[in-house]
Amino acid sequence: MSSHALHRGAAAGPVCRSARRPAARCSVRAMATAAPPLTFSKYQGLGNDFVLVDNRHSSEPVVTPEQAIKICDRNFGVGGDGVIFALPPVGDTDFTMRIFNSDGTEPEMCGNGIRCLAKFVADLDKSQPRKYKIHTLAGLIQPELLADGQVRVDMGLPILEGPKVPTTLAPTQGTTVVQQDLVVEGKTYKVSCVSMGNPHAVIYSCDGEAIKPGACSPQPQSSHQLAGIPKPACPPSDSNGASARQIDGLDANLAALGPKFERNSVFPARTNTEFVEVLSPSHVRMVVWERGAGRTLACGTGACALVVAGILEGRIDRSQPCRVDLPGGPLQIEWRASDNRIFMTGPAELVFSGALRV
Ligand SMILES: N[C@@H](CCC[C@H](N)C(=O)O)C(=O)O
């Protein structure tokens, strides 16, 4: 599906920017000198949605962090979890990826985003399924477009040394933080810390109980607590559009709990946080609170991090790929024993294309 529209309103800003003169009364000459509209395409990977910009003509993003915040606004803008740029290559790569979160901050990497970016560039260049070398702030990442439409990504190596994640939590396995206690709101969470270029805090248990969802129910959420996460009313209200695709009750209360982890002082660069339930040694499900984006329907780097953490915690079997069910759908993750590289396979789809004034 593809449409072309000129978006107006707060995200785009009025065509005439004079504060004294409303856009409707701008002169024709003023409108004629306005910057040309920015063309974009919106893609989504399991409901983690991004505004993609072809920025290959310039090494600096054509959109500022402040503009990205407006573009990502779901009411006044295009709507998205971030704005992603395809920039000129660095070294022996095909191109560079940069991304601004919906709060305007710049993360090092985005797993769902890089699948979307590979599809975006392939669509722009009308190229056949192929493998790309993409330079990111997290190093070289290599997505490959598969014949079935899925994208398989060589995500590189996880970073396990606590200070490099970064976290100030004390290591428990060599230099790695695995199942370390962290008290949040009076509950003790067992936290494992993994970086996929960006930081992740992975939680499989709280107060001695495995993270487990209750069935989504129309009851008020106050009477029911499982592993520290209250059961939701059904559907829970949420400002990020995630309510329709929630997994049972795992993501209830996420909007209150997530920021307590994201901005906890033990994570000096803030953190993404994944709450995970083990269904079998090769099948888990999760909900995520993302740094800089809040509750999202999927997090590719998070899915990789939680599989690494699950293996380190002895919960996931490393000898086979693991299915990770995210609120937006499943990803397949493999942490290859032969060379420690992580591979992520999942979808990426065009939603629509458009143009806006920034
Ligand atoms: N949704 C992404 C992660 C995006 C970056 C994250 N919010 C951060 O700040 O680290 C993914 O799919 O990995």
From TrEMBL:
* GO MF, one example: diaminopimelate epimerase activity
Annotated keywords: Amino-acid biosynthesis, Isomerase, Lysine biosynthesis
| Top-level EC class | isomerase
Q: Does the keyword Isomerase apply?
A: yes
Gene Ontology CC annotations of this record: cytosol
Q: Quick one: where's region Disordered?
A: 217-243
Q: Which GO terms describe its biological process?
A: lysine biosynthetic process via diaminopimelate
Q: What catalytic activity is recorded?
A: (2S,6S)-2,6-diaminopimelate = meso-2,6-diaminopimelate
Q: In which pathway does it act?
A: Amino-acid biosynthesis; L-lysine biosynthesis via DAP pathway; DL-2,6-diaminopimelate from LL-2,6-diaminopimelate: step 1/1
Report the InterPro entries cross-referenced here. Answer: DAP_epimerase_AS, DAP_epimerase_DapF
Q: According to the UniProt entry, what is the EC number of this protein?
A: 5.1.1.7
Under HAMAP family, the record lists: DAP_epimerase
Family (UniProt): Belongs to the diaminopimelate epimerase family.
Tell me the protein's name.
Answer: diaminopimelate epimerase
Species of origin: Tetrabaena socialis
Q: Which lineage is the organism of this entry classified under, starting from the top rank?
A: Eukaryota, Viridiplantae, Chlorophyta, core chlorophytes, Chlorophyceae
